Amino acid sequence: MGEFELIRTLFRPLAEATWQDGVVLGPGDDCAIQRVPPGHELVFSIDTLVAGVHFPAGYDPVRLGWRSLAAAVSDLAAMGADPVCYTLALTLPDADPGWAKSLVGGLEEASRAFGIALAGGDITRGPLTLTIQVHGTVPEGQAIRRSGARSGELVAVTGPLGGAAAALSWLEAASPPASAEGFLARYHRPQPRCELGRQLRGLATAAIDISDGLLADLGHILEASGVGAELEPGRVPRNFDGTQATLDQALNGGDDYELCVILPHSALEQLPGSVADSLWVVGKVCAGSGLRLMHADGVIEEVSVPMGYDHFRGQ
Ligand SMILES: [Mg+2]
């Protein structure tokens, strides 16, 4: 099967199946056209996933489809944006129709779940790589940036952390133990927190999605906002279906795609109960700089904020 046949038989139907109102023109022309409603802004972000770097070589293509789109959409969630459409640049070692069909199956499931349409793309030959650019919209001026955190505000996360990191050792196991299932589900099917992001517009002062680990991603907020923070490790949720990720996995593990949110105390009371119930307060923002871990036994640990994964340094 060639490039054009893959597009005609698999990707064009995916675009048609996931089409939504915000897409004026989908694939087939030189560009796609997206409608941005009056009073809204276009929010967009691009992510590349390389086999052997961002997912294991030989990773199941259905899961790859879901995971790739979830990771990309998670950046929209972090800004409080509503997903609209995405473009996909796919580099494949060969045009294996069975593999591509499975990938499209995973993409379609995720596209429907997150309410985002395939609007266009490109296929080339080479080492397996997916690049996804997601587009969303947000009411003018309401995108949640990294730079708005202020001293005295709360640091919260939207769910348990460390599950994807804990899953890594079980990914290639033929029969992982039942205790690993919650971790594996988190790795294979991350759930971008779009609805929470939307509800936090106008209330959260800063947010980021946790792709590199809580300490690294919170560090990005602190740096952008020019503040410091105190984090209570004992309050960081890390329970997955009855099995706990380690504290190190919860603080430093990536790929969970929960949100780290900064909000004033008063905002917690304004949130609908369902949203407030989805937030775990894990610390507070302080004047100055730096990140301190306030351990339950009274020990205070100053941590140097990790920068996140550096693809050229490997750490
Ligand atoms: Mg992000």
UniProtKB/TrEMBL annotation:
Residues that hold Mg(2+) 1 according to the record: 47, 122
Enzyme class: transferase
Entry EC no(s): 2.7.4.16
GO function terms (MF aspect): kinase activity
Residue numbers binding Mg(2+) 2: 47, 75
Domain PurM-like C-terminal: residue ranges: 151-294
Swiss-Prot/TrEMBL keywords: ATP-binding, Kinase, Magnesium, Metal-binding, Nucleotide-binding, Thiamine biosynthesis, Transferase
Residues that coordinate or bind substrate: 54, 255, 309
Positions of ATP binding: 121-122, 146, 211
Binding residues annotated for Mg(2+) 5, in chain numbering: 212
Pathways involved: Cofactor biosynthesis; thiamine diphosphate biosynthesis; thiamine diphosphate from thiamine phosphate: step 1/1
Record keyword Calcium present: no
Protein role: Catalyzes the ATP-dependent phosphorylation of thiamine-monophosphate (TMP) to form thiamine-pyrophosphate (TPP), the active form of vitamin B1.
Family: Belongs to the thiamine-monophosphate kinase family.
Protein name per its UniProtKB record: Thiamine-monophosphate kinase
Organism: Marinobacter zhanjiangensis
